[in-house]
């Protein structure tokens, strides 16, 4: 009786393991299946909805190009930034495409990043009339509108700013305009895009990271997907060499951002 039960349990576990393996990211890529990608959908010009309501943006279109290169379909799942990495870790999607640089030891221990498809640095915006914040040293004790778990939230915390929690960049910029926050750190490319599109925003650049401090963003996957990540990275390299990334950079930013 016990031997039969043990045999049955072994069979169930083996079947479960086999099913899980068959549903792995590398198998979906090899079998030309569908991969799911977490993204905000509210973080222009990287991931947002255009006037027609279509999800687009630099990261979104790069991901679509990678999927086409791999011969797979891609399904985007929009979610807030603060739950995105947790969602990836929990297996709610296969990858994240949201300008993630993967710079902290904690994230590096849990996730892996593909070949970089963009390079950027931190930038700080303040109100146009505020001349009291010009350097990183001036941030101490000031109200910084930041998403709690982002690279920029970590930077503001390190500089001893008073963190005003937000859901995304747009909310942070609004809080500064409303004088409910003094500053925000975010990606230089996203903020430059905002300033270009909103010349009367009442905001200005107070600080920008130097060129040698730029970091690369890529597609993020959970640890243990080395084979799949290698294929994804190879596709990104091909897209760069073919000029596709340059074309997308010029489309969204006016210049190639795929090279450092």
Give an account of the 3D structure:
The protein has 2 domains: 33-119 and 214-253, D-Maltodextrin-Binding Protein, domain 2 (3-Layer(aba) Sandwich); 122-208, 3-Layer(aba) Sandwich (D-Maltodextrin-Binding Protein, domain 2), CATH 3.40.190.10. Residues 2-22 have low confidence and may be disordered. The longest helix is centred in the first third of the chain and has 21 residues, at 2-22. Helix 6 links the parallel strand 9 (143-146) and strand 10. Helix content is 42%, strand content 23%. The strands form 4 sheets. Strands 1, 4, 5, 6, 7 and 13 form a 6-stranded mixed beta sheet that branches. The protein has a 3-stranded antiparallel beta sheet with strand order 11-8-12. The protein has 260 residues and is α/β, with parallel strands linked by helices. It has helices spanning 2-22, 25-30, 58-70, 81-89, 105-110, 151-158, 169-177, 188-197, 226-242, 244-253, and strands at 34-39, 48-49, 55-56, 73-78, 95-100, 111-113, 118-120, 122-127, 143-146, 162-165, 183-187, 203-208, 215-222. The chain is built from 10 helices and 13 strands. The termini are far apart. Pfam families: SBP_bac_3. Keywords: Signal. Residues 1-21 form the signal peptide.
List the helices and strands and how they pair.
Blueprint: H1 2-22, H2 25-30, E1 34-39, E2 48-49, E3 55-56, H3 58-70, E4 73-78, H4 81-89, E5 95-100, H5 105-110, E6 111-113, E7 118-120, E8 122-127, E9 143-146, H6 151-158, E10 162-165, H7 169-177, E11 183-187, H8 188-197, E12 203-208, E13 215-222, H9 226-242, H10 244-253
Parallel strand pairs: 1-4, 1-5, 9-10
Antiparallel strand pairs: 2-3, 5-13, 6-13, 7-13, 8-11, 8-12
């Amino acid at each position: 009786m016990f031997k039969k039960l043990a045999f049955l349990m072994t069979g169930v576990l083996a079947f479960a393991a086999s099913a899980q393996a068959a549903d792995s990211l590398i198998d979906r890529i090899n079998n030309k299946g569908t991969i799911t990608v977490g993204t905000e959908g509210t973080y222009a010009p990287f991931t947002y909805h255009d006037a027609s309501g279509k999800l687009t943006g630099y990261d979104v279109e790069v991901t679509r190009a990678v999927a086409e290169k791999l011969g797979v379909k891609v399904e985007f799942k929009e979610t807030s930034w603060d739950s995105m990495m947790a969602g990836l870790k929990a297996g709610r999607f296969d990858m994240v495409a949201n300008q993630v640089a993967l710079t902290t030891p904690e994230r590096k221990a849990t996730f892996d990043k593909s070949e970089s498809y963009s390079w950027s640095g931190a930038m700080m915006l303040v109100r146009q009339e505020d001349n009291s914040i010009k350097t990183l040293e001036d941030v101490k004790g000031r109200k910084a509108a930041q998403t709690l778990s982002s690279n920029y939230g970590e930077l503001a915390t390190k500089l001893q700013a008073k963190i005003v929690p937000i859901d995304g960049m747009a909310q942070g910029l609004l809080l500064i305009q409303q004088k409910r926050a003094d500053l925000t750190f975010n990606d230089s490319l996203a903020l430059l895009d905002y300033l270009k599109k909103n010349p009367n925003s009442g905001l200005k650049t107070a600080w920008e990271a130097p060129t040698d401090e730029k970091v690369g963003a890529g597609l993020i996957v959970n640890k243990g997907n080395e084979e799949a990540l290698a294929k994804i990275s190879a596709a990104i390299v091909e897209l760069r060499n073919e000029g596709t990334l340059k074309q997308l950079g010029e489309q969204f930013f006016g210049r190639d951002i795929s090279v450092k």
